[in-house]
UniProtKB/TrEMBL annotation:
Its EC number is 6.2.1.3. This is Long-chain-fatty-acid--CoA ligase. It holds the Pfam family AMP-binding. It comes from bioreactor metagenome. Residues 17-378 form the AMP-dependent synthetase/ligase domain. Keywords: Ligase. Residues 428-502 form the AMP-binding enzyme C-terminal domain. The gene is lcfB_22. GO terms for molecular function: long-chain fatty acid-CoA ligase activity. The keyword Ligase applies.
Length: 515
């Protein structure tokens, strides 16, 4: 049994009643039980193996917004060993073609809105079969995915799968260049699942609403797969619509949730936010960027346990979070800048350039090890070797630890500027500025300065009717040392975001990087 325990779906199925609701497809109004999902997975597995001639280690891909077919494919992988890859359909066709050529999927499932890109794929890649998930693209002769689901029921397949076999390709984020393909094994997926269940006390009584796109690790691995493995319920929709999210919270009563700060911000700005009953939630987690204190206060004031967390595609993403089920609201407020403490199965260090541990309170690079670790970048040994130097995953994030053991992100190694010979990490400054009541969002960048080399510039989205620069400057002097106070301030209507919903630093530097 050694090497084959973690991937055996029967270990999960025996504890889950087939009549329990597994997935609610909100957009289509369809509710699927666990029995439905296992049957759909068997149909897809049999189709891929017997009619498409796929085998263990082959890849299938999706270019679509969220759909129940993603979960069909995930569960079918346990029967076939076929790898699933999900593409960010918002990327340019040329970027997607580079990913496709690297990963070599044999079958691609797509939504009608991607039809123009699909024509480019057909001319420039070796994909063998295409299926339309939903929509009716004009001029397409590709078969409909649901035709596979209309086939007669069939028994599940059995395939010998090792724990180190690759289960999924996930793509790293970033604002420049084509994302790298991270290879995620059955072992990594299993430990990520158990980590979430243990840390957050997930059970079959829990429900999560997943509107984050399933081309990101956060949508797959934070709550979603762990809940499916322990018999919980997932609600899916094709995108984020604030009014719809608040409506579903009232109707379906989800118990746990994760999103990026921009999502929480937009929800809190809805007229119906204060009327929506959030008491169903045990906790909410924010990731991808540091949430601003003023925004979080709108949730805390209603007794909602919301906090920042930390995770990376290559090492989780279940890496660090506040123990929200244990802490008082006062402590959650006190530690709001923190990304928490390590979750189960994470070995964490903060090191200097010589891989020596730095003292408590000192800033260094955050590195990880443990069974959640990825299996490297596909066909990119050079980049894999760089990030795995010394046997530890180098995150590129600078961090410190306080006397209570809580971790704080200071910023990216590259997202800093040097002023008067001192390294200035922008995330720390943004956290302070974000606590000012009239600030809705902020990005701090370094700009050239004749005297200091570089100085800080704060690009701010503010409530202009409540913003006073003189009072704001006084606030900065009270909360930041002189060298960290931005020399320049520019008010803007909004900050540009990338496809991952994070601040687009290259765009911000291009637009506002001059004095």
């Amino acid at each position: 049994m050694e090497g084959k325990l973690l991937q055996n779906l029967n270990f999960y199925r025996k504890r889950t009643s087939g009549t329990r609701e597994a997935i609610y497809d909100y957009d289509n109004g369809i509710r699927y039980t666990y029995h439905d999902m296992y049957e759909r997975a068997s149909k897809l597995a049999n189709f891929l193996v017997k009619e498409c001639s796929l085998k263990k280690g082959d890849c299938i891909a999706f270019c679509s917004s969220n759909d129940v077919a993603f979960f069909d494919a995930y569960l079918a992988g346990f029967q076939t060993g076929i790898i699933i890859s999900t593409y960010n359909f918002k990327l340019h066709a040329d970027e997607l073609i580079r990913l496709i050529r690297n990963e070599k999927p044999k079958v691609l499932f797509y939504e009608a809105g991607c039809f123009e890109k699909i024509q480019e794929f057909k001319k420039n890649t070796a994909i063998e079969r295409y299926f339309v998930l939903f929509g009716d693209p004009a001029g397409s002769s590709d078969p409909c995915y649901e035709a596979i689901m209309e086939k007669p029921s069939c028994p599940p397949l059995e395939t010998s799968i090792e724990d180190e076999d690759i289960q999924m390709y996930l793509h790293t984020g970033g604002t420049t260049g084509t994302p790298k393909t991270a290879m995620i094994s059955y072992r990594a997926m299993f430990y990520n699942t158990v980590c979430d269940v243990f840390t957050n006390a997930l059970s079959m009584t829990d429900t999560a609403y997943v509107f984050l796109p399933l081309f990101h690790t956060s949508a797959w691995n934070i709550i979603t797969v762990p809940l499916l493995m322990c018999g919980g319920k997932i609600i899916i929709s094709k995108g984020f619509v604030p009014k719809t999210v608040l409506k579903i919270i009232e109707e379906e009563r989800p118990t746990v949730g994760m999103a990026v700060p921009e999502v929480y911000k937009r929800l809190s700005e809805e007229d119906s936010f204060m009327r929506t009953d959030f008491s169903c939630y045990k906790w909410l987690s924010s990731g991808g960027a540091t949430a601003q204190k003023a925004m979080m206060e709108r949730y805390w004031s209603r007794g909602i346990r919301l906090a920042n967390g930390y995770g990376m595609t290559e090492i989780g993403p279940h890496n660090m979070t506040l123990p929200l089920l244990e802490l008082s609201m006062d402590t959650i407020r006190e530690k709001w800048r923190s990304v928490g403490v390590p979750m189960y199965f994470n070995s964490v260090r903060i090191v200097d350039g010589n891989m020596e541990d730095v003292p408590c309170g000192t800033c260094g690079e955050l590195v990880f090890s443990g069974p959640l670790l990825f299996s490297g970048y596909l066909n990119n040994d050079e980049e894999t070797a760089k990030v795995m130097e010394g046997g530890w995953m180098h995150t590129g994030d600078m961090a410190r630890q306080d006397k209570d053991g809580y971790y704080y992100i200071a910023g990216r190694k590259k997202h800093m500027f040097v002023s008067g010979g001192e390294n200035i990490y922008t995330v720390e400054i943004e956290a302070v500025i974000g606590a000012y009541p009239a600030v809705r969002d902020v990005c701090v960048i370094g700009v050239q300065d004749d005297r200091w080399g570089e100085v800080g510039k704060a690009v701010i989205v503010a409530e202009k009717e409540n913003y006073c620069e003189e009072e704001f400057r006084t606030f900065l002097k009270q909360n930041l040392c002189t060298i960290k106070i931005p020399k320049y301030i520019q008010l803007v209507d909004m900050l540009p975001l990338n496809n991952a919903g994070k601040k687009d630093l290259s765009q911000i530097n291009r637009l506002y990087g001059s004095i």
